[in-house]
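User: Just a sanity check before I run the rest of the batch. Below are the structure tokens for the first item. I only need the designed sequence back.
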């Protein structure tokens, strides 16, 4: 992918997740579904998100202080499962839109070539990438790839705050809860990462480079260092 054009006035955010449920009113510019058949990846019309993971992630990001365009790539099925090939196909589709910011509240334990190649294409094209990582332990993929901002949940943060963790497991942390759904059982790293992406949309200019984004996020962080429990 070639380098990006002149930055636009608002972020174009691509989300790779489980889609949107039938009740979700978050507007999306485009959405597609990617299903790994074993012999390839089919690109299909989206279906309702029954897992609700993607719906909550999209709602968090949509709550940013500034408007953004959202693009949803449905690559996680109703049981919360995906494959490297499906995720990679979703990323390539999002880059064609073209998005400036990729959000992936997902992780694989092992490196896989299709995913590595898709992330490399995004990095080389200048897209900013946020991927979730657990609060403890080794970074999963894609959070572990060079050029990716690894984000997790931080209980110190409320909505609108982030932490500069500077830790081996994650770069930044965000609020662990969905303020619009207090009963949600999906919280922690996935929602924390979504809050970090929301913070980027709220406070950083579209098209900012990775090094500049790291510096600006660090300067705006409400907390520094690891969360102590």
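Assistant: Here's the designed sequence for the first item:
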């Amino acid at each position: 992918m070639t380098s990006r054009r002149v930055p636009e006035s608002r972020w174009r955010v691509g989300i790779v997740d489980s889609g949107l449920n039938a009740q979700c009113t978050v507007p999306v510019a485009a959405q597609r579904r990617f299903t790994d058949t074993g012999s390839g990846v089919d690109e299909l019309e989206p279906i309702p998100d029954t897992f609700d993971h993607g719906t909550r992630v999209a709602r968090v990001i949509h709550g940013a202080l500034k408007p953004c365009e959202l693009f949803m790539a449905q690559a996680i099925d109703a049981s919360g499962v995906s494959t490297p090939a499906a995720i990679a196909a979703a990323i390539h589709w999002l880059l064609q839109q073209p998005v400036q910011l990729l959000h992936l509240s997902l992780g694989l334990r092992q490196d896989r070539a299709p995913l590595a190649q898709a992330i490399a294409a995004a990095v080389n094209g200048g897209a900013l990438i946020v991927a979730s990582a657990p609060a403890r332990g080794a970074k999963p993929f894609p959070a572990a790839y060079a050029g990716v901002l690894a984000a997790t949940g931080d209980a110190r943060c409320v909505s609108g705050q982030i932490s500069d963790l500077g830790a081996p497991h994650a770069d930044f942390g965000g609020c662990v809860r969905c303020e619009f759904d207090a009963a949600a059982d999906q919280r922690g790293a996935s929602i924390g990462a979504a809050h970090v992406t929301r913070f980027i949309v709220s406070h950083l200019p579209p098209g900012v480079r990775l090094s500049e984004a790291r510096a600006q996020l660090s300067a705006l962080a409400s907390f520094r260092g690891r969360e102590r429990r």
